[in-house]
Amino acid sequence: MSTERRVRVVLVDDHRMFRTGVQAEIGETERTGVDVVGEAADVDQAVSVISATRPGVVLLDVHLPGGGGVEVLKRCAGLMADAEHPVRFLALSVSDAAEDVIGVIRGGARGYVTKTITGPDLVSSVFRVADGDAVFSPRLAGFVLDAFASTDAPPVDEDLDRLTQREREVLRLIARGYAYKEVAKQLYISVKTVESHVSAVLRKLQLSNRHELTRWATARRLV
């Protein structure tokens, strides 16, 4: 990557260790051309830091305290619309769920990549988004094409809409057969927090156990 250009980046993720890892991977300015000018761990911090620094690109996690990545996009709509110096958003998430991808793209993000992406590919994606391109991990591009190819909006699932983004992610992993400890490891949360999310999901969906939850998720093709 040529270092003649510089792209100013803000990292938004609620896991400090992940932010540190990304910073180490892409923040070697002389090598990558990326200047990490700010970090945030929740929605309010993100909006404040982005407004103060006006970066070229924001690496945005989908699941954040305070309303998630979609809420950040909503509150930064004016910055995205700036004709001279637009702030562009690239979602960087552990989730590969269609509803997460489509949600942030509808919110205004220019792309969506998963956290399995390599450092060099992430740097390349940052530059491409800064140039106004749309960037997606290969499998995720299909979700967006399918969603926007139809002239009709996708049907609203009122049951699914009752769940928070984090609850949806926990639901999906549980439905795939993950144990609570495995879910906790995947999402960087405690087992107790996983248990709380599962209880909330069962209550909201009026289900009795994880077997019913798995059938519910499978019927909606969330697994």
TrEMBL record:
Protein's name according to its UniProt entry: Two component transcriptional regulator, LuxR family
Domain Response regulatory: 8-130
4-aspartylphosphate: residues carrying this PTM: D61
Keywords: DNA-binding, Phosphoprotein, Transcription, Transcription regulation
Species of origin: Actinacidiphila glaucinigra
Keyword Phosphoprotein: yes
SUPFAM superfamilies on file: C-terminal effector domain of the bipartite response regulators, CheY-like
GO molecular function: DNA binding
Pfam families: GerE, Response_reg
One GO BP annotation of this record: phosphorelay signal transduction system
Keyword Transcription on entry: yes
Domain HTH luxR-type: 156-221
